[in-house]
TrEMBL record:
The chain holds residues 5 to 340 of 685 of the full protein. It comes from Desulfonema ishimotonii. Residues 5-257 form the ABC transporter domain. Coiled coil: none annotated. This is Dipeptide ABC transporter ATP-binding protein. Belongs to the ABC transporter superfamily.
Length: 336
């Protein structure tokens, strides 16, 4: 399949008082039409910064893309003027966030905010048509009594309803790519499941690609086709979802999988802690960034591991990926 988005050797850095840090350091991945790519890792591993880089929404002036390409078709988004990028954002690539309250404007009614999206991207559309489109989007995301909701303010809606409004707004322009950054984390389990089902249904209808950012491997197992595991700003492993769960070739991925709680609990669970801590981006070790937590570390791990191919689309950034002991079956049973 033809990738619709290709990120190549992306480096994103932040200027901070304590120095410059690379929050994303040489990250590559691609996603095709209709595909769902999961990006998983503990907090601070660079998932959100990767997404914000693609959207060109890094906090300015501290955050900047220092190297790499973000190709949407043939267009390199890193080279676009802010003006051209703003026409792509919300139109060809949309993003939904963990807490929709921060993305919705509290002082404007829901109807006005959805209409704004249409007005921005289709300025020649008439007001009646805009109203009808907005209403139709709210119906599509399963909001009851949409006429009434249009007149309400964000605080009058529940968290789940607000996230549906955000999804409606982000899909209003039929984007080619939807980036969802932990969109269900703040919601209770039942609502989480409904939102995942909704995203999946809308994706089937529109054929859009979805990049789903989460720390929840249960969610990955449920909705993703392929997975990118990030650790301390780098890619640890990438694979089709079934292969990642059945044959993980990076010790970090194995650690994440072992810590997945049992099936019946997984929806409300976060990643459990792997012993040790993620190294500070200010004091990264030479070589493999996982070495202080890795049960298999060897002297060679003091040099940067290459992305070793395991099979077709399966790569692992570990010196020992070919020599790791087989995974015990029960590691993955609960996960998929
Ligand atoms: Fe562990 Fe070495 Fe592989 Fe890093 S390269 S994950 S330290 S075995
Ligand atoms: Mg995040």
């Amino acid at each position: 399949p033809n990738p619709i988005l290709q990120v190549r050797h992306l480096i994103t850095a932040f200027d901070t008082e304590a120095g410059i840090i690379r929050a994303v350091d040489d990250v590559s991945f691609s996603v095709s039409k209709g595909e769902t790519l999961g990006i998983v890792g503990e907090s601070g591993c660079g998932k959100s910064v990767t997404a914000l880089s693609v959207m060109r929404l890094l906090p300015r002036p501290m955050g900047h893309i220092d190297a790499g390409e973000i190709l949407l078709g043939a267009t390199d988004l890193t080279r676009l003027t802010p003006d051209r990028m703003s026409r792509i954002r919300g139109n060809r690539i949309s993003m939904i966030f963990q807490e929709p309250m921060t993305a919705l404007n509290p002082v404007h009614r829901i109807g006005k905010q959805i209409s704004e999206v249409f007005r921005l991207h289709f300025p020649e559309t008439g007001e009646t048509e805009i109203y009808e489109n907005a209403l139709q989007m709210l119906r599509k995301v399963g909001i009851p009594e949409p006429e009434q909701r249009m007149r309400e303010y964000p605080h009058q809606l529940s968290g789940g309803m607000r996230q549906r409004v955000m999804i409606a707004m982000s899909l209003a322009c039929k984007p080619d790519i939807l980036i969802a950054d932990e969109p269900t984390t703040a919601l209770d389990v039942t609502i989480q499941a409904q939102i995942l089902d909704l995203i999946r249904a809308l994706q089937q209808e529109t054929g859009m690609a979805v990049i789903f950012i989460t720390h929840d491997l249960g969610v990955i197992a449920e909705i993703c086709d392929s997975v990118l595991v990030m650790y301390a700003g780098r890619v640890a492993e990438t694979a089709p979802v079934r292969e990642l769960f059945s044959d993980p070739k990076h010790p970090y991925t194995r650690g994440l999988l072992t810590s997945v709680p049992r099936l019946e609990n997984r929806r409300k669970s976060r990643l459990r802690i792997i012993p040790g801590v993620v190294p500070s981006l200010y004091e990264l070790p030479d070589g493999c960034r996982f070495q202080n937590r890795c049960p298999h570390a060897q002297p060679i791990c003091g040099t940067q591991p290459p992305m070793n191919p395991v099979s077709g689309n399966h790569l692992a950034a570990c010196h020992l990926s070919a020599q790791l002991p087989p995974v015990r079956k029960q590691h993955t049973e609960g996960a998929i």
